[in-house]
Prior knowledge:
The structure holds 2 protein chains of 2 kinds. Chain A is of the alpha/beta class. Chain A has helices at 14-25, 51-54, 67-72, 133-143, 156-167, 183-186, 188-200, 293-308, 376-385, 391-395, 401-406, and strands at residues 6-10, 31-36, 75-79, 83-87, 92-95, 100-102, 105-108, 112-114, 127-129, 148-152, 171-175, 204-206, 211-215, 222-225, 230-232, 235-238, 242-244, 259-260, 272-274, 279-283, 286-288, 320-325, 328-334, 341-345, 353-358, 364-370. Chain A has 11 helices and 26 strands. In chain A, helix 1 packs parallel to helix 8. The mean pLDDT of chain A is 93. By secondary structure, chain B is mainly beta. Chain B contains no helices and 11 strands.
Amino acid sequence: xxxxxxxxxxxxxxxxxxxxxxxxxxxxxxxxxxxxxxxxxxxxxxxxxxxxxxxxxxxxxxxxxxxxxxxxxxxxxxxxxxxxxxxxxxxxxxxxxxxxxxxxxxxxxxxxxxxxxxxxxxxxxxxxxxxxxxxxxxxxxxxxxxxxxxxxxxxxxxxxxxxxxxxxxxxxxxxxxxxxxxxxxxxxxxxxxxxxxxxxxxxxxxxxxxxxxxxxxxxxxxxxxxxxxxxxxxxxxxxxxxxxxxxxxxxxxxxxxxxxxxxxxxxxxxxxxxxxxxxxxxxxxxxxxxxxxxxxxxxxxxxxxxxxxxxxxxxxxxxxxxxxxxxxxxxxxxxxxxxxxxxxxxxxxxxxxxxxxxxxxxxxxxxxxxxxxxxxxxxxxxxxxxxxxxxxxxxxxxxxxxxxxxxxx
Amino acid sequence: xxxxxxxxxxxxxxxxxxxxxxxxxxxxxxxxxxxxxxxxxxxxxxxxxxxxxxxxxxxxxxxxxxxxxxxxxxxxxxxxxxxxxxxxxxxxxxxxxxxxxxxxxxxxxxxxxxxxx
Lengths: 409, 117
């Protein structure tokens, strides 16, 4: 199918754009239609809570590609288009504006959608979620005249926004439902490190409590918690996570924490593929759902190859994400729902350390790196190799990571 | 960009000392800070090359990356550059890295931080 036919891609986020581009790089000469419900030219989301929010990057800096690129690659980009439904038998996609698109192969790259909360008084002005560029613009505009912000949720977006808003001179209070934010991902010690980091940087963090009410005349003036705290604020940001966006649905299209795909990105419907945040895919033999930029890029590239040459290129990438907070750079490799042992290499006191998550066989399943970028590539290799390591060596900074790998227990 | 002869027309005075030859083994990287630039110097298949030390995609110091088969890998988003000519081998970077003149002579490595012709 190299010269004729049509591939339709739903979603022009990082996955969809990379898929379209990869199809061309791999020599696909048929028609490529790239649809998105957003009206903006495709942009990069990570900077919205970081460099774009603080003003280091402007609108042009965060476009995924120069607008002329889509034309030069002959990618038919359709913005502001919402999918109504799909007919897999006749291979037609219907949109809400009454258009239809015939496909030979379809890729779903619909990404994530916001998890939302319903809180008494949340119709007041000044209460925001962050997902799209339009959200980010609204927040940035609004907080120019604001002194106090409440952030609900101390996950990565909440933490990055706290860091960015603090940098803009705004007083920030984070209200986090759990006692240890992100403990299920990073473990208690690193969770505690994050709490300390916020507090050291002058951010007020309230844990083990929830906002139950917003008060104000027309705009929000205070947030009230279940624990009875009344926090004065002129703006609120809710950052309580995302869920897979499986807006394109069909009875035969299997979903379970995202579109279920195999290692080639094939869904349960023939010639329908999916990539990125919206999928559940097999990682080291177990279905996982990953919501990260790097995964979306690489998954989309691999799945595109399989759309051209079916089942040619299995996806086996080590999940990875990075974050920036208060001038610290964090990197996380791998994926571990549970672990048997954790190993700290260097001390958290200096903000330069690496933390490993080992299984019961002492195999490193994941690692969290703080301001030690030199460890990134050796750790990625280490996790990919799935070999047991000596935990004592791993904790010893004097033993290079390359050397640790060779020590078997 | 590879020079092994000191009779080269380029004046050595515009060159900055990087390190001794023995300090830079195959696939090793070292960093050199000049007044205006951060340059990363590496050895691939015996030859020494020098390119921008900061990734063209986002701020990340390439000295923290790795050199493998003349491919310089960024440790932040894993963009790959050909250290021989600075070209992009793998995204997310779009723009190539600037290359710089290097001289290896008498057991020493020198780099010129001016733009290459």
